[in-house]
Amino acid sequence: MKQTFFLFIGLLLGLDGCAAHALKKADNDSIKLSLHMPRAASVRFLSSLDGFLAHETRRTAMGFWEIQLPAAKPFHYFYQVDGSFYLPDCPLKEYDDLGTRNCIYLP
Question: Among candidates 11, 14, 8, 68, which has minimal Cα distance to 39?
């Protein structure tokens, strides 16, 4: 009975579309960021690389949203998911001047 309960909870959490975030070296000059948000209609990426302009990400068949960026210098970033601010689980974060948190990429 206990195992069935935990299996049911695990399935519910899995179906909820929990986000997974990953950074992966694409080549020597760039990285690929991906965010797993299978239920999202749109995901935009914003970073300090260009003054936090919103960039559309590319949706893959598995519900990941991806963008490829230069990897040479550090930057701060976050996402907009269906128009709302979204900060993924990232190892380095800091507060910005507006009191919100941003992820930090360090090469």
Answer: 14
